[in-house]
Amino acid sequence: MLVIDRISKTYAKKKVLQQISFTILPGESVGLIGMSGSGKSTLARCVMDLERPDAGEMLWQGASLANKNVRRASRKSIQIVFQDPRNSLNPAWTMKKSLKEAYLQFHRLPIQQEDVDRQLGELLQAVGLSGEYLSRYPHELSTGQCQRVCIARALVASPELIILDECLSALDVSVQAQVIELLRDLRKQRQVGYLFISHDIAVVTALCDRLLVLHEGIVVEQGRTEDVIANPQHAYTRSLLADVPQYPYFTE
């Protein structure tokens, strides 16, 4: 589905990404783990076409994302959920307006005007919220509920891949567990793939089939989640695992 082939990115002579390569299969969840400054968010911005890599190639469904027509077509298929849900929503808009905007302005998708509440209510139900939330403003929701709405916005265009960029770090541990269960359910129901970016290896291992460990812009280790956890090969990976808390509700 997505092929990242030896991409690099440099800012002001600092190498932020160095020869990064990995793939994501349809419906697969891949975790990208690393501490702050390791290049995780830069990689996410490159995939979303918010930044352009200096070298290397990115392929979506076998076609190069360097082609503007491919990039344009991919914008409905690749969505992102950011770290801070409150700053991702307009504080002056109800949830109904935020979701409706995603249909009409971002993606220009057809939505039946006479049945807007039902359609948007069904979208909220997909993320575990009732239709009554359509009339609420962000300040009337908890942080976890706001993040559910952001996930609902990402689902508007029925994407094939969702990039989750530190999307749980603003939530407390119990709410993290609830959102992880939601993401698992959505993956099963919609066959959507994830690129899950985090500094928290405990959270990533709960959701991902494979892990990539990013350190100073270099992928120092990658493999199946259970293999990386059971037998880490790189000292940096071992240091990350040394401090992993045990959350039993994160397990399947």
UniProtKB/TrEMBL annotation:
Keyword set, alphabetical order: ATP-binding, Nucleotide-binding, Transport
Key word ATP-binding present: yes
Q: Which GO terms describe its biological process?
A: transmembrane transport
Domain ABC transporter span(s) in chain numbering: 2-241
Which Pfam families does the entry mention?
ABC_tran (PF00005)
GO MF: ATP binding; ATP hydrolysis activity
InterPro entries for this protein: AAA+_ATPase, ABC_transp_ATP-bind, ABC_transporter-like_ATP-bd, P-loop_NTPase
Concerning its family, UniProt says: Belongs to the ABC transporter superfamily.
Q: What is this protein called?
A: ABC transporter domain-containing protein
